[in-house]
Amino acid sequence: MEQQELSHLLQVRRDKLTELQNEGRDPFKITKYNRTHTSGDITRGYKEEEREITMRGETKTVMAKISPLDGSNVCIAGRIMSKRGMGKVGFCHVQDIDGQVQIFVKKDILGEDEYNHFKKLDIGDIIGAEGEVFTTQTGEISIRVSKLTLLSKSLRPLPEKFHGMTDTDLRYRQRYTDLIMNAEVKKTFINRSKIIAAIRGYLNERGFLEVETPMLVANAGGAAARPFETHFNALDTDFKLRISLELYLKRLIVGGFDRVYEIGRVFRNEGLDTRHNPEFTLMELYQAYTDYHGMMDLTENLYRHVAREVLGTTKITYNGIEMDLGKPFERITMVDAVKKYANVDFNGIKTLEDARAAAKEHNIEYEKRHSKGDILNLFFEEYVEEHLLQPTFVMDHPVEISPLTKKKPENSDYVERFEFFMNGWEMANAYSELNDPIDQRERFAAQEALLAQGDEEANTTDEDFMRALEIGMPPTGGIGFGIDRMCMLLTDSPAIRDVLLFPTMKPIGE
Questions:
Q1: CA distance to 10, 79, 109, 149, 398, per residue, from 114 (Å)
Q2: Is the model's pLDDT at 1 over the cut of 70?
Q3: Helix or strand or coil: residue 71?
């Protein structure tokens, strides 16, 4: 829309508002409206019956929809999305949280003054409509309006309906308009809410306690990520935004809460792409007296439960690929996965020099600081991840990349850890949690050495967490779920920004 045309339309709408205010009909002075039904209440569960109609002298049979509230008086409220008039009769489609319903406005019923006010309404205005539910001659469920109330004047026009809201950047920046214009977008975010509710319901029924832990922390640990930093003026102290939920939730396990979880935002100072946003929603849970095998069972059952609750099926399709959550999830070690897809057996690679030689042979780029375990992980990322389309647990990671995880008793080069993959993406990360404070301090020291070598994602020693471990933490299984990626898969959304109501955007003009 040209700027000059837009400016004219904005002025016309403001002039209409001024006229309403001068007449004592200011919609912004209305504080409430007694809505009795939504569009879904009126249209959901309709019956169909054949009906003969005559239009322009021609008689034909149509399938008429009959509302379960046919003949009832209702009050609905919502936004005008279309409007047309035919002399003394007008029609509108009114949109609310459930969808749209047609209203039928007749001059003889409303009266001349009220009908003239109806004709001045604009697309985007929010109205309340009271009347009787009926079916029009053309077979559409409608409301025969006896009283119409303007509840809010839209002073800015909506996007032109034919083209809709198609500019992706604009959709993310103006999510409010996106939700109005695109029904599928609204459905995605309704399902996101249902997904989170289903997770909570599943865990609450199994004795998990939902808790909240700090976002502003002195030591941002629990993940390999660069934190955001800020300054707290009142204490004249620098803080960081949390990068995970782990270290505080483990303190609660020490304190005697055997099953805890948190769903909340975490913040990582990293790049933007289709699967990464600097603030995202993480769910972490910790369960005393179990291990990473217990976390695998929980993950498998949780995903099935959420899919059934929200979608009504355990078979989902993402980007044209069907994934079956109803079948047992594959379980494979990282070493076996690299052997399967890269034909390199790290069981036979005993030294760092051997690992570097294998990397050079397979064009795997590594850094001087990388250990044998790091190089195994580089092979996994290069050769394996893209093949893990169906639900798969990749187990037993190298100790070098798992600073908070228990070592495998039979082989201390590896730890009791798994990553859960679908569609080639990491969906969750889980451990048999390290509860040996002596071992944990050594792991933190190794992380600090990496930090000194320039690894900005390495952890530093959290002394208060160490104090908690020294008091004693029981054997514990823990897991972190990326809620946004889960929502992407279950709603068939191509990018993380499509499941974040307000994704991080660069300010306009910068």
A1: 24, 18, 9, 9, 75
A2: no
A3: coil
Cβ contact 496:276 at 8 Å: yes
CB of 398 within 8 A of CB of 377? Answer: yes
Q: Residue 143 in 3-state DSSP?
A: strand
Q: What is the DSSP string of 440-461?
A: HHHHHHHHHHHHHTT-TT----
Nearest to 147 by CA among 97, 113, 101, 99: 113
pTM of the entire predicted model: 0.92
Token pair recorded at residue 18? 């001024």
Q: Which fold has domain 7-158?
A: OB fold (Dihydrolipoamide Acetyltransferase, E2P) (2.40.50)
Give the span between the Cα atoms of 397 and 409, in whole angstroms.
13
In sequence order, what E strands does 215-364 have?
216-217, 229-232, 237-241, 259-267, 279-288, 315-318, 321-324, 330-333
> What CA–CA distance (Å, rounded) separates 261 from 295?
13
At CA 218, angle to CA 213 and CA 220, rounded to 5? 70
**Spatial CA neighbour of 241 closest among 263, 219, 264, 216:** 216
Work out the average pLDDT over 340-366.
96
Sign for the CA dihedral angle at 320, 321, 327, 331 comes to negative
Q: Which pLDDT score, from 0 to 100, does residue 93 have? A: 98
| pLDDT at residue number 164 | 55
Name the pLDDT band for 163 (thresholds 50, 70, 90): low
Cβ of 84: how many Cβ atoms within 10 Å? 9
On whether the CB atoms of residues 30 and 149 are closer than 8 A, the answer is yes
Residue with tokens 């992980």: 377
Q: Check for a shared fold between 7-158 and 181-329+420-498.
A: no
Is 338:376 a contact under the CB 8 Å cutoff? yes
User: pLDDT category, 404, cuts 50, 70, 90?
Assistant: confident
State the DSSP string of 202-244: HHHHTT-EE----SEESS--SSS-PPPEEEETTTTEEEEE-S-
pLDDT digits (tens, 9 = 90+) for 70-94: 999 999 999 999 999 878 999 999 9
CATH annotation of 181-329+420-498 = 3.30.930.10
User: Which among 479, 497, 446, 457 is positioned nearest to 240, based on CA atoms?
Assistant: 457
* Rounded CA separation 443/384 (Å): 27
- Mean pLDDT, all residues of the chain: 94
Give 285's strand partners.
261, 479
Domain parsing of the chain, residue ranges = 7-158, 181-329+420-498
Residue range 229-282, pLDDT digits in tens: 999 999 999 999 999 999 999 999 999 999 999 999 999 999 999 999 999 999
